[in-house]
Amino acid sequence: MSVRSAVAMGCAGSTPKVDENSKKLKKPKAWKHTQPITPAQLKQMRDEFWDTAPHYGGQKEIWDALKVAAESDLALAQTIVDSAGIIVSNPDMTLCYDERGAKYELPKYVLSEPTNLIRQG
User: Fold this and answer.
1) Cα Rg of the chain (Å, integer)
2) pLDDT tens digits for 70-114?
3) Which parts of the sequence are annotated with region: Disordered (predicted)?
């Protein structure tokens, strides 16, 4: 019975941790690009990242979910992350894992705009 209790306690103890991680999405902190960039340049950087991201490992479906979450408001992003079973290690989504333990690192430029974005007209 002590083994069963230990297993039950382990499961009970680990479940809230996953739930806790998935419930703390926050807006990324302000950041500055090395040089001022235009919205078109930012879009190009983002497109290049998302085009190559699946080649870094992990599941394409998780990368797709992260992309949609990154482009959504926090409430929708939270729903997407929870539905896909993504474990958020950093509240700004810069470091996530899937249920199999694969690591997904997102650069800040796919999550928010830099403080030195050149706004035209």
Assistant:
1) 17
2) 999 999 999 999 999 999 999 999 999 999 999 999 999 999 999
3) 1-37
Domain encompassing residue 65: 2-110
pLDDT in tens, 16-40: 344 444 558 998 888 999 999 999 9
CATH number of domain containing 87: 1.20.225.20
| CB-CB contact of 20 with 87 (8 Å) | no
Residue 121 forms part of a structural domain:
no
Residue 2, exposed/middle/buried by CB under 10 A (0-12, 13-18, 19+)?
Answer: exposed
What would the two tokens of residue 4 be? 């069963």
Alpha helices in the chain (DSSP H): 2-22, 39-52, 60-70, 74-84
